[in-house]
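Sequence only, no structure available. Ideas?
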Amino acid sequence: MTAQTQSQFFQQLKKYYTFYTGGFIAFVIVLAILEQMGLPPKWIGYIFLGATISLYAGIGIMSKTADVSEYYVAGRRVPAVFNGMATGADWMSAASFIGMAGTLYLAGYDGLAFVLGWTGGYVLVALFLAPYLRKFGQFTIPDFLGSRYNGNLPRTIGVIAAIICSFTYVVAQIYGVGIITARLTGIEFQYGVFLGLAGILVCSFLGGMRAVTWTQVAQYIILIIAYMIPVVWLSVTHTGNPVPQIAYGQVLQEVTQLENEFNNAETTKGAAEVSARAAFKAQQESFEARIAALDAAVAAGNGAAFLEAQRTEAGSPADFPATTDDLKASWKKSADGAKGKAGPVSAHATAFAGKGAETKARANPNATEADIAAAQAEDQEASDIKRRNFIALVLCLMVGTASLPHILMRYYTTPSVREARKSVFWSLFFIFLLYFTAPALAVLVKFEVYSNLVGSSFAALPAWVANWSAVDATLMKIVDINLDGIVQLAEITIGGDLIVLATPEIAGLPYVISGMVAAGGLAAALSTADGLLLTIANALSHDVYYKMIDPKASTVRRLAISKGLLVVVALFAAYTASLKPGDILFLVGAAFSLAASAFFPALVLGVFWKRANYLGAVVGMLAGLGVCMYYMVITYPFFGGVATNQWFDIAPIAAGVFGMPVGFIGVIVGSLISRAPSLEIQQLVDHVRYPSLAGDIDTRAA
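Reply:
I predicted one. Tokens follow.
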């Protein structure tokens, strides 16, 4: 494509998406008018769900292609600005759109690890990988590994690692789709997962990367508008300032004042909180006593009889734990939940806050200086653990960002190396718009909950509490633990995954805005899921089938296999998501740790160290991925792991902090103990790294 033709293409895209943006805004206004005229909320949900999925399907149908280059890399003609928007949508997964503000709401300062890690990662992308991989050309990350390290084994390991990372990530997106679809339509979560899956498949199945790219641009426009409107509304409501990123500092001061009130037993609100916390403390001790009785019964050989007695006492419910281990795990979970409610309120703005042991000790009139000193030591230890996890998580997210195959593949779609560099800038800009807003949204919602929900009557709870409790009781639950009829903060359980989706209802906005935010969350989840499923299917069809099994396969056969695999992987991922294997943010964080451990050492050393060779890549990728997965298995509860197995108290989400160094050591040692790469491979490294006469437009043959 000539420069003039590319320019015309760019102008045409600008015109199309300007009309599209205006049409979407008009659509929302029409629905708002219909709501005022009496259109039921459920119908608004159906319309949003149907209209957005139909829109994405339409783009997918119009982008249908049988051309290999178009299917795998969108014809390598996506302008930098639009590739930046598509990357932004690809990147703004359910974790970013749904989970990030929720994590900041729950964790306060400590949640900023996600903002720092994910934005900082694009610096690594720009400096170390995007331009070099674009100059290399080809279609996939395993392509680079196979060519750079001259063998099918590195390619195969790359395929396996890409599938593991992408599958973990896509399960999180489909889980988010299930939550949103269930809220929009009122159907059960398990069915919402498979209903949303139809929207995911319709684009990637028909047109591959070409359809996914233009759909993702459309999805970015929806999700950024949907994210901004509620937070701007809240900002104006509470501060009169329509720029939440500036206004939220004022609100944060008010949140801090309320936190101090909740922790001060001499205030009315503080006294009520003390009452609720005491009730949770009693509940904690009750469950711990039951666990002790269970352990004693098992030790005496009476475990089965004890279990049966407990089942009878509970009325023999169908979901009663089947074994003593299951019963103990259930009681332990309840005890830990009550323990979390029994402590003082953590300060949102405090970095690496301790457990509040010192506050409790000083509130006890019988506490000695030794008790207070012990409590201070306990708080310091907890603070140190949080600090280590913060740094480890930032590192894993940064390096994982620069290693995820579905993100790196986006830079294969630009017309040139120069456009790939510009595309990284635009990607960061479009991502920044949401990330810069998330901390403000978290604080504004927290202030709304603290000032309006806390202290209200149980007899007059807002409708959004019941609505979200019906979707998932683990996301929204309020229990009158001290039976005073008034809501205390300790009695409120809010899951991070609902903060953004529930913001319009919390703020008292019309339901049409709730529908729009849900559509934005759906766009975020669908856009990322499309890219991830395409990565998995392409790795299997292109890197395994075409490159290793049948190099003479026709274009029709290659694409047919890719589409068939896409459906199989999508159905399996949806089934896995329906089991609720973990919260969205953990699943996404795990994908980053896995990618950092498996890919980053081999990719970076493959570009910047000509001595890196076949054995080094094999050892490094296997060792890094193996250590990371092993650590997750022994420490994450879903796999049967326990926290006591943690190394240096690092949480399993940051397992990459162990896997990545092992990966680097593996590549270096494996390369040094074996023969240097061939001259041809070293020339390939020079070609990728250094400018040439045609360096800005060079691509290797597909």
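The two ends are 17 Å apart (CA to CA).
Hope that gets you unstuck.
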